Amino acid sequence: MFKDLIPFRRDRTRHPLFTAEDRENIMWFWNGYLKKRTIWLVAVLGLIFLQGIAYQQFLSLTEKGLRVIFDNGAVTDLIRVCAIVFGLFALRGTASYVVPRLSTWLASGAVMEMRRDMIDHLMTFDLAHFEMTPPGDYILKLVQQAQTLSQFVGQATISAVRDFFTVIIVSGYLIYKAPFLFFTALIVAPVILFVLQRTSNGIKEVQRKSESALGGYMNALEETLSGMRTVKISNQERFERERLTVSTEKIHDLQIRLQAAQAIVLPAIDLASAFAYSLVIGVGGYMAIASEHRIDGATIITFLIGLVMVFDPLRNLARFFTTLQSRLVILRSVNRLLNIRPTITDAPGAVAEFDTKGDIRFEDVTFSYAADTELFQNLSMHFTGGHRTAIVGATGSGKTTVLSLLGRLYEVEAGQITIGGTNIRDIQVNALRQSFSVVAQDIVIFNASIFENIRYVRPDATDAEIWEAAENAEIADLMRARGEAKVGPKGAQLSGGQKQRIAIARAFLRSAPILLLDEATSALDQRTEEKVKRALKRLSEGKTTLIVAHRLSAIVDVDRIYVLDAGRVVETGSHDELLQQQGLYAGMYTTQKSEYL
Ligand SMILES: Nc1ncnc2c1ncn2[C@@H]1O[C@H](COP(=O)(O)OP(=O)(O)O)[C@@H](O)[C@H]1O
Ligand SMILES: [Mg+2]
Asked: What domains, with CATH codes, occur in the chain?
C-alpha cells in the first residue's frame, strides 16, 4: 500500500514531455474540432490577453500609488490611481464572466461533434467487434471520457492560456523594470521543469490504469444489472456485491496513486517560489542599500507583488500540465475508437439492385469464428428462389451461422455466397440487409410499447399495417391490453413466447423478399404455434424462405431440407426422400414423433 504512495519509481529513462503520439492526437483534435472555431477562439484569447494587460497595468499603477504615498504627493493623484485600479479589476471581472461562458460553449460544441463522430463510427463496426468488446468500454469512451475532455478543453485549457499570458506579460514588465532581479529569480526555473518532466510519465501510467479500472467497473455493473434474474435465482448477490466492491476499491486506490503522482509538483513550486522571494528580498535589498543601483523600496515591493502574480498562475500552469498528461491518455483512448476500421463495408462499385427473388447459393464456403477451429469447410448449399428450404441439425451444428453469413454479419474466408447470381460482397450492405425479414434466435426487444417495438423494423408503416402484423403474429390481444405501457429493459416484463411473437410481427410488417426464420416458434405453446405457423406460411408465399427448426413437424412440407452436423451437410432432400434414406434425419424424426404422441 505505502509503496503506492511513493510517486517516483527508480526509472532512469528520460521521457519527453509529449510523445509523438500525443502530438498527433492533439493535432487530430485541433484539426477535427477546434480549427473551424478559430474566430471564436481568437476572441476568447483576445479577452484573456486583456485580462493579462489589466494585471500589468495594475502593477504599474500600484508602483505609482506607492510613490505618491512615499513621496507625500497629492491626494487627488492617489484617488485617480484608486479609481483606475478599480476600473481595471472591473474589466478583468467582466472578462472572467464572458471567457468561461464562451469557452464552455466552444468546448462542449467541439466535444458534441466528437461524440457524434464516435456514434457514427460505432455503427459501422463489425458485429464480431461487439462480440469481443464488453459494452462498458464503449460507455466509458462515449460518456465519461468525452465528458472529461469537454471539461478539460473548456475550462482547464482556457485558464491555462490566461495564466500563460499573465506570466508572460507580468514577467515582461518585471524584466523591463528590474532585469537583474528577474534573472536572479529565474534561477529556480530548471528545478520546476525537472519536477514536471519526472512526474509526467507516472501520471500517464496511473491514468491509463485508472481508465481501465473504470471500464472494468462499468462492465461489471452492466453485467450484474442485466443478469439480475439469474443473480437472484441462483442466490449470487454476495458474489456480485464482492465483485463490484473490488472494482470500486481498485478505482479508489488508483485515484490515490494518481494524486500521489502529481503531489510533488505544487510543493516543489512553492518551495522554489519561496527561494525566489528570499533571493529578491536579499539581492534587491542589498542593491537598494548599496544605492549605486537605480532601485528603490517601491521598485522592490512592486517587484515582489509582481512575483506573486507570476508564481500564482505558474502554479496553476504546473497543475494544468499534470492534468494535461492524464487527459492525453483519454484523448488517445477516444482516438483509438475512431481509428478502428470495420471490415464489412461496401466494396467499390457495390450494387444497390440485385435479384432478391433469385436463388441463394453457398459455394464452397469456408468460415470460422476463431482462428484455429474451422466451422464450415467447403460448405455448399442451394436455396431455390421463391421456395421454402429448411435447415435442421443439433445445436452448435452451424444453422444460425448460415443465416448470419447470408446477412454478411461475418465475412466468409473462402468460397462465396450469391443471391440471384450476385456475390453478396458486391451488394451494398444496406441493400443486402434490406432484403431480409428476420426472426432471429436471440430476440432484441427495446424498452418501449409493443406497438413501437413492432414498428421498429419499418418506421414508415401505418398503424393499420402494424395492427395487421400483430394479428398475424397472435400478439394483437396483448398489444391492446398493454396499450402504451413499456415492456421493460430488454422486454423484461414479457414472456419468451410473447417476445417471440413480437419478433414474428416484425417479420410480417417488414415483409421483405427473403424470409429467415431461426427457431422462430420454439417458445410458443402448440396451439399458438399452429396458428402462427399457418400465418407464417401465408407470409412465406412466393418468398425465398430459410427455416431453421428443431421441431421437425414444423418443416415436413418444405421443398428441401438440409441436415447439418458439425458444420457439414450430411443429408439433403425432401422430407419423404430423407425418410427413405434411413439416415440422421429419419432417426431424429422417429424419435421426435414418438415423443409427441
Ligand atoms: N459469435 C460467435 N463467436 C464465436 N463462436 C460462435 C459464435 N456463434 C456461434 N459460435 C460457435 O459456432 C458453432 C455454431 O453455432 P450456431 O451457428 O449458433 O449453431 P446452431 O444455430 O446450429 O445451434 C457453435 O460451436 C458455437 O459455439
Ligand atoms: Mg442457432
From this structure: 2-11+22-339 (1.20.1560.10), 360-596 (3.40.50.300)
